[in-house]
Amino acid sequence: MIFTVAIDGPAAAGKGTIARAIAAETGFAHLDTGLLYRAVALRSLAGEDPVTAARGLDPVALDDPRLRRPEVSQEASRISAIPALREALFAVQRGFARREGGAVMDGRDIGTVICPEAEAKLFVTASPEARARRRWEELRAAGLGTSYEATLEEVRARDARDAARAVAPMRPAPDAVVIDTSDLTVAEAVAAALAVVRDRL
Ligand code: C5P
């Protein structure tokens, strides 16, 4: 069966948690597409040309813990505005979306660019403050010390850049269901998302 669940939205809104829960419930394969941009960003920070790095991306490199570092987040946001780079990452994402057995993908442009015909589309969002708090707690738990204020600043900068870029800006697809997780528990957010998917299965 071909069935794509497209989950877009800003950083730390809960996309990953929701995507993993949907994948566990449906048995669909999951791809966090932010990791593709992060893997390219890591190589760009090491001095490689980002477009060349995107063309030769090794999916095995996607479990590197360094990918979560704040400087990698900012670099990913910066390089993701390069059209040729997005183009280089298109085929792998497109292939994943329409793979046999179903796919759950989270990112910024899955429902708008990568798979506009996705059977279920969600736009998961939350206030910048709620997202900064979550991201800060994650970073602290991972032993990457930083302040809440710096994290909020980082979240705002990335939102502005991701929404303003000319190519594939972050925005909800016209047919996406918007879920604001600011005042929802994880269980409530997951239940709301699963209801949308079940409705379309
Ligand atoms: O989701 P995550 O925070 O890991 O993404 C890192 C950066 O990669 C984002 O800020 C965004 O600029 C870029 N990205 C993108 N399109 C996607 C996924 C991520 O432009 N589908």
From TrEMBL:
Entry keywords, A to Z: ATP-binding, Cytoplasm, Kinase, Nucleotide-binding, Transferase
EC number: 2.7.4.25
Keyword Transferase: yes
Gene3D superfamilies in the record: P-loop containing nucleotide triphosphate hydrolases (3.40.50.300)
Residues that bind ATP: G9, P10, A11, A12, A13, G14, K15, G16, T17
One GO term (biological process): pyrimidine nucleotide metabolic process
The UniProt record lists the keyword Kinase: yes
Record-annotated Cytidylate kinase domain positions: 5-197
Catalytic activity as recorded in UniProt: CMP + ATP = CDP + ADP; dCMP + ATP = dCDP + ADP
GO terms assigned for molecular function: ATP binding; CMP kinase activity; dCMP kinase activity
Top-level taxon in the UniProt lineage: Bacteria
Subcellular location field: Cytoplasm
Principal location: cytoplasm
GO CC, alphabetical: cytoplasm
Protein family membership: Belongs to the cytidylate kinase family. Type 1 subfamily.
The protein's name: Cytidylate kinase
Protein's organism: Rubellimicrobium thermophilum DSM 16684
Encoding gene (name): cmk
